[in-house]
């Protein structure tokens, strides 16, 4: 028995606009909207200087890495750039580098005093 829609058994098969098997297509664009922002230069510099501060210049570079890392982390938290993880890595390595530098200065001072 056919109902008013002209289908048998009361099941209406409808076709999506745009042709058979094709739903509504998303608008064409460049990439995905709302993607993660790229790391900022400050975050990358902080991480690199933190690494170099542990290896090469243990007094100056960790302080610069710490300052850049804090600035980059604040920017990432405000949504002005990415690289929050790199900024945190720079902050951590900056603190470790400062601690190693202070430990080295303390050991050198104690050895200098004991040699007198």
Can you summarize this structure?
With 116 residues, the protein is mainly α. It contains 3 helices and no strands. The chain has helices at 41-55, 60-78, 84-114.
Report what the structure shows.
The protein is mainly α and 116 residues long. Helix content is 56%, strand content 0%. It has helices at 41-55, 60-78, 84-114. Helix 1 (41-55) packs antiparallel against helix 2 and helix 1 packs parallel to helix 3.
Listing every helix as H and every strand as E from the N terminus to the C terminus, the arrangement reads: HHH
Helix vs. strand class: mainly alpha
Count of helical stretches = 3
Mean pLDDT: 82
What gap, in angstroms, lies between the N and C termini?
112 Å
Tell me how many strands there are. 0
> Helical percent range?
55-70%
Shape: rod-shaped
Strand content: under 5%
* CA-based gyration radius: 30 Å
- Spans of at least 5 consecutive residues whose pLDDT stays below 50 are none
Largest sheet, in brief, is: none
């Amino acid at each position: 028995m056919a109902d008013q829609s002209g289908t048998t058994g009361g099941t209406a098969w409808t076709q999506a606009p745009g042709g058979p098997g094709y739903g509504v297509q998303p608008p064409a664009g460049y990439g995905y909207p709302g993607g993660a922002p790229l790391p900022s230069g400050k975050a990358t510099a902080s991480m690199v200087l933190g690494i170099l501060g542990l290896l090469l210049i243990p007094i100056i570079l960790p302080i610069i890495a710490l300052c850049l890392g804090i600035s980059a982390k604040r920017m990432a938290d405000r949504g002005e750039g990415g690289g929050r993880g790199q900024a945190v890595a720079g902050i951590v390595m900056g603190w470790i580098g400062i601690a190693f530098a202070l430990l080295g200065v303390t050991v050198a001072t104690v050895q200098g005093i004991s040699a007198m």
